[in-house]
Design brief:
4 helices, 0% strand, Tc1-like_DDE_dom, elongated, 78 residues, RNaseH_sf, mainly alpha, Tc1-like transposase DDE domain-containing protein
Length: 78
Amino acid sequence: MLSCSNIEIFLRENNPHLTLLFLPPYSQNLNMIERIWRGLKENVLESGYHETIDHLMNLIYQFTESSNQNPKMIISHI
């Protein structure tokens, strides 16, 4: 398995023009789509019992349609 130091050495030796950038660990509170998923979860998935998959899919569709028609709702989740 390659370690970061092995990769850095490889890049230095094979292409000194490339720079290895380290990204921060995953942080879902900074990821905007995760906030929208949370809104979907709170408004649809946790809203009660869904007797059929069709009923659940219809509620998800309604959530996305109302989100598209009212961008302020999405912004409120972000």
